[in-house]
Amino acid sequence: MRLLKYIVIFLVINFGALAIGNWLMANGPREPWYLNLNKAPWTPPGWVFGAAWTTIMICFSIYMAALLKRKFDGKIIALFILQFILNVIWNYVFFNQHFIGLGLTIITMLTLVVGTFTFGYLKQLKLKTLFILPYLIWLCIATSLNGYILLNN
Question: 17: which residues sit within 8 A by CB, 6+ positions away?
Answer without folding.
Answer: 57, 84, 87, 88
